[in-house]
Amino acid sequence: MRFAPFPSRLAAPMRAAAIALACALALSFAGAPPARASTDFSAAQKTDIEKIVHDYLLSNPDVIKEAIEELEKRQKVAEAATREKAVNAHAEKILHSANQAVVGNPDGDVTLVEFFDYNCGYCKQSLDAIAKLIESDPKLRVVLKDFPILGPDSVEVAKLATAARMQLDSKKFWDFHRKLLSTRGHIGKAQALAAAKDVGADMARLEKDAAKPETQAALKEVATLADQLRFDGTPSWVIGQEAIVGGLPYAQLKTKVDNVRKCGKSVC
Predict the structure, then answer these.
(1) Up-side HSE of residue 2: CA atoms within 13 Å toward CB?
(2) Thioredoxin domain spans which residues (predicted)?
(3) Is residue 94 domain-shared with residue 131, that is, in the same domain?
(4) Measured between alpha carbons, how far is 178 from 131 in angstroms, rounded to an integer?
(5) Which residues of the chain are under the pLDDT cut of 70?
(6) Does the model's pTM come out above 0.85?
């Protein structure tokens, strides 16, 4: 953060205190708790400092903007570090859990993980990008994790999709997933059953498996992972050691996959 010179009548200790107070006031606009006022000054001195800071910020409002931007930058860096730590700590369940679908090349040299909801509009938009990646990259392994956060219908669909995964091979499940996720409008039980029937699923087994405790446990595992990764929306991704929330276009996903293959990280 940059500050313009304070009036020369301020002694050095008062100037330092005023700068500290300006920082605290600026950060308070960004939601950070204000710093406690120093007890080394008299009431009159504090009043003088507060007025100088007040007048300074009114004359230089960009200081507040800079403080907010710096705070957001630091928060993003800290959040990324926390997520990377979680990726490393839970890598086995993220990449190799039995409670997930694997499409593309199951023995691929790079894995892209998507946490999704069948009613998520951005997930629907991401479907074409993932399909294009799989078609163009025979060495790509894609993990699909049901993360139903958009209401009861999404939970019901996720149960049926989990049951479908239990009985369908990778290719048929990918067909089911694409058919269901590309369905227009709101997706509920009827749409999930129709998509399963279209790909030849055993419908009687499907509904029985959807009601099993194992199905609920599978969805709970994904929800726990999402919480550990601080995912609060869909789609969310894990690629290399990076965990990302939000839709990503094909070009960006491809670049990250290529980078992992080249240097072991999503950003080289």
Answers:
(1) 3
(2) 75-262
(3) yes
(4) 9
(5) 1-39
(6) no
